[in-house]
Write a structure and sequence with these properties.
By secondary structure, the chain is α/β, with parallel strands linked by helices.
């Protein structure tokens, strides 16, 4: 496991990447796929603090011959499951993969102003997000779970009644905690548990920061909601948390495309769908899932 970044360093990376130029408004291409192939790189938004899905490679160094913009990260500087999936997208198009790291709420809000081309960042497909974003076929599926501080003495969902719980801002986890079923936007069969009564929701920029805050001794919340894969990574890193039994809902995770992009993304989305379908069929996604999660999360759950 790599050491987790300080918040300050993450903010520097994020602020730099937010200015990255993605969709290529100056391109002479007629659509986004053509613009990407013309410039020789695809700019993918993802999270640099979401291990094991995506996180900085502190041992990597930027190659001198990269086509990535100066304020974007290269494949040598990032690692994780989502990173490997994004690299596969770039490889399938015959271009280099580069990474921008804007805030999660900026990604889910749409209207990216062509600053990046696509999100490959474990985004759950929801009805609300489908108003501003187009989605690929899902590339994997995860259960959402709750973890509590190890010294809390809480061992069940009911034990969280009246407690403060953390979640990443603008995430499905925050929507669930707020009983915002419209914002959550999942089919009823994908929701397995009701929110405990009278909880206080504490949003942070990402759900991973909730775990890091508990590890740092923060006491204004006692639990957090996130992907099962993130909690497993937190436990493997030795964080003082305990995972409660049972998922609270399940998520279909897909690549996302901005509906308001200057250049049409239809052909790019079709290429990504074709790639993900092939990677499901030939086992490449299963291999990546086993590599990063220690289990295969690429089969849709029974709902």
């Amino acid at each position: 496991m790599k050491k987790l970044l300080t918040l300050a360093s993450l903010l520097v990376v994020a602020s730099l990447a937010l200015t990255a130029c993605g969709g290529g408004g100056a391109s002479s291409a007629s659509d986004l796929l053509g613009a990407i192939q013309e410039r020789g790189y695809i700019l993918v938004s993802t999270d640099p603090n979401y291990e094991p899905q995506s996180f900085l490679n502190t041992e990597g160094s930027r190659p001198s011959d990269t086509k990535c913009p100066g304020d974007a990260l290269t494949t040598a500087e990032m690692q994780g499951f989502d990173v490997d999936v994004a690299i596969a997208v770039g490889d399938s198009l015959g271009v280099e993969t580069c990474f921008a790291t804007p805030s999660w709420d900026a990604i889910t809000a749409g209207s990216w102003a062509d600053k990046w081309d696509v999100s490959v960042g474990s985004m759950t497909v929801t009805t609300a997000r489908q108003q501003v974003l187009d989605f690929s076929v899902p590339y994997y599926y995860t259960p959402a779970v709750i973890a509590v501080a190890a010294d809390s003495g809480i061992d069940s969902l009911d034990g969280l009644s009246g407690q403060a719980i953390c979640a990443g801002a603008a995430t499905t986890y925050e929507s669930w905690l707020n009983n915002d079923m419209e914002g959550l936007g999942l089919p009823e069969a994908s929701i397995y548990a009701h929110v405990p009564e009278n909880v206080t929701v504490v949003p942070l920029e990402t759900d991973q920061e909730c775990a890091q805050a508990i590890a740092a001794g923060r006491t204004d919340f006692i639990a957090y909601v996130t992907s099962d894969t993130v909690v497993d990574a937190n436990l493997a890193a030795g964080m003082p948390v305990v995972k409660l039994d049972g998922a609270v809902f399940s998520e279909d995770l897909a690549a996302a495309f901005d509906k308001s992009a200057t250049l049409d993304s239809t052909s790019l989305r079709a290429k990504v769908d074709e790639l993900f379908t092939a990677m499901h069929s030939d086992g490449r996604l299963s291999d990546l899932s086993n590599k990063w999660f220690g289990m295969d999360l690429t089969t849709a759950p029974n709902k």
